[in-house]
Amino acid sequence: MTVGVLSTSGIDRCVALLGEDLTAYIAGAGSATEFQRWRGDRRRWAEMAGRLRGAVEVADTFARANRLGAAAGWLREVGAAGIAGRSPAGMLREATGDTIKRVLEAAERFTRRGRV
């Protein structure tokens, strides 16, 4: 997903890849219901954009490794990105450039395990 304005298709893609509950969490919403309201409010899209782009990039990393089915579980796993007590999804929810980069690097490392 390229940097720029978040689109409806970008939001839909994130939901399709990771499920609505996980997407809502990463977007920063308190619930799937709140996330549904946010989806209809384009002013919220800028707030969600970096978070959801990062989530789609993680899912794409898993998809390239033929491991898309493991992406949601990995995002929820505490410590998976190398920070004790933190899940990659929680880190994406922060939406800072450094945390997104760290999560993407950890996803790359994880998906390369076991490949020749």
Describe this structure in words.
The chain has 116 residues and is mostly helical. 68% of the residues lie in helices and 0% in strands. The chain is globular. This is DUF2384 domain-containing protein.
Write a short abstract of this structure.
The chain has 116 residues and is mainly α.
Give the count of helical stretches.
7
Give the mean pLDDT.
88
Structural category: mainly alpha
Number of strands: 0
Q: Termini, distance in Å? A: 27 Å
Q: What proportion strand?
A: under 5%
Low-confidence residue ranges: none
Helix/strand order: HHHHHHH
Q: Based on CA inertia axes, which overall geometry fits? A: globular
Q: Which sheet architecture does the biggest sheet show? A: none
The quaternary structure here is: single chain
* Rg estimate, integer Å: 13 Å
- Helix percent reads 55-70%
Key terms for this structure?
mainly alpha; 0% strand; 7 helices; DUF2384 domain-containing protein; globular
Layout of SSEs?
Blueprint: H1 8-18, H2 20-27, H3 32-39, H4 42-64, H5 71-76, H6 88-94, H7 97-112
Helix pairs in contact: 1-2, 1-4, 2-3, 2-6, 4-6, 4-7
